[in-house]
Design a protein that fits this description.
By secondary structure, this protein is α/β, with parallel strands linked by helices. Helix content is about 45%, strand content about 15%. α10 packs across α13, α11 crosses α16 and α16 packs across α17.
Length: about 450
């Protein structure tokens, strides 16, 4: 394979970063391995973060490719799996590798990856770990999802001749400002990619301002719209419906510190007109459950905590779902979902997962990570924006008391997702052409 062209040279800052990550790698590994161990990940799999593979490289037919995808966590990995499935249907015979950094994404990958793919934890962005990873897997193409710009990994892969793409690209305003202060290094990093597909025109303009080649940058929409719906447990769904016994339910999902107070105030207001209403509260970080439980008690509300096995009873006003991997079931349980990370300037969370489950969306104004998604979704009627507890309570009350309006919102959300998912075929076409992907040759 010929070495692809590179539009800029490495900088002193890049070399300094590479040297620093080499020195800090043992300390970084100690931290990330402890996190993985806390989630029950074996020692052998933890060592994947040092580039030690726990699985063999797949045997490939003549001219077949190993196509490597990387996504930081669950959301990015789901988008990657969507593309893996589409690419495999177009290019059968090629194989796929998905890397990510969290135990949750690894557990999800085991359940959702097709047989043509396998998962590994991503190597730390240090020379030795990356070298071991690349020497074992020898990927022909590397596709990075959203904002995972690891300089050592990208430069080492490019040096080996791996063709690289950044898809579903998004950069926060803070990240763009930071990169502009390091423009020569940003230009070097941008030049490593053969293709850059962004979530919207603004991100495309930001990448161009950082030195990306205009011939390689294309806005392509948000790939999360095309991801398969989150899986749900039919048994758990039936169990919860039986426990609710017809009680109305609304969901506050992926809430962050500083948001639960607003949600609880809204729920207290709603209880005045809907005394049997139940709130299913799903914190973004389940380890905050004790803190959130105290807030619920201070608000004068009763609650049951899922992780302790407490039952949802007729007296339960808040069900604290402090567990992982059950979000799809919760979204299938109620047609009204408030998505956190948005009442504060955090960036918001993925509305496509909610819409795919058949629910309508409520969000605060702080959805900067989905700036290309929420305004048209709101305009279409599939979502409503609220700013405080009063507006949140009013929005939930409207949908509880006006089922026709709720159904219209659910239909609009679903329709919007269906429209956006059509971008996937365009993305796949660009990946195939820009990365030189092709059908493997058939054996004679």
């Amino acid at each position: 394979m010929t070495k692809p062209d590179q539009t800029a040279s490495p900088t002193l800052l890049f070399y300094s970063y590479r040297a620093l990550t080499r020195l800090l790698a043992p300390f970084a590994y100690r931290k990330v391995s402890a996190k993985l161990a806390a989630h029950g990940v074996s020692d052998r799999r933890q060592r994947e973060r040092l580039g030690h593979a726990s699985q063999p490289r797949p045997d490939l037919a003549a001219s077949a490719s190993l196509i490597w995808f990387h996504g930081a966590s669950v959301g990015e990995s789901l988008a990657a799996i969507t593309l893996i499935n589409r690419l495999h249907s177009r290019l059968p015979g090629n194989r796929f590798l998905l890397t990510s950094g969290t135990a949750t994404s690894a557990a999800m990958a085991v359940k959702r990856l097709p047989d043509c793919a396998q998962h590994q934890f991503a190597p730390l962005d240090s020379s030795a770990a990356v070298a071991r990873f690349l020497a074992h897997w020898r990927p022909d193409a590397g596709i990075f999802v959203e904002s995972e710009l690891w300089p050592v990994t990208l430069a080492a892969a490019k040096a080996r001749g791996t063709r690289l793409a950044l898809v579903n690209a998004r950069l926060s305003a803070k990240s763009v400002t930071g990169w502009r202060k390091k423009l020569p290094t940003a230009r070097f990093i941008m030049g490593l990619f053969d293709l850059l597909l962004t979530q919207n025109k603004q991100v495309a303009e930001d990448l161009l301002s950082l030195g990306a080649d205009p011939a390689r940058v294309f806005p392509s929409g948000n790939l999360k719209a095309g991801a398969a719906a989150l899986p749900h447990s039919a048994d758990l769904l039936a169990e919860m419906r039986a426990a609710l016994a017809g009680r109305a339910l609304w969901i506050a999902s992926s809430t962050h510190k500083g948001e639960e107070e607003t949600v609880l105030d809204a729920h207290k207001a709603l209880l005045q007109d809907h005394p049997d209403l139940c709130l299913l509260l799903v914190p973004r970080h389940p380890e905050r459950a004790d803190e959130i439980g105290s807030k619920i008690t201070q608000a004068g509300l009763t609650y049951a905590q899922r992780s302790t096995g407490a039952a949802l009873t007729p007296d339960t006003q808040v069900y604290l779902a402090d567990t992982l991997g059950e979000l799809g079931t919760w979204y299938a349980l109620s047609p009204i979902v408030f998505l956190g990370g948005s009442l504060l300037p955090i960036g918001g969370h993925n509305p496509f997962e909610v819409a795919q489950a058949g629910a309508a969306v409520l969000t605060g104004p702080g959805y900067s990570n989905f700036i290309e998604t929420y305004p048209p979704l709101i305009a279409a009627g599939g979502a409503k924006e609220v700013c405080d507890a009063t507006e949140l309570a009013q929005a939930v009350d409207l949908w509880l008391t006006q089922p026709d309006q709720l159904q219209n919102a659910r239909d609009a959300a679903r329709h919007y997702v269906d429209e956006q998912s059509g971008q996937l075929d365009v993305v796949v076409d660009r990946l195939i052409s820009s990365l030189g992907l092709h059908m493997p040759e058939r054996a004679p």
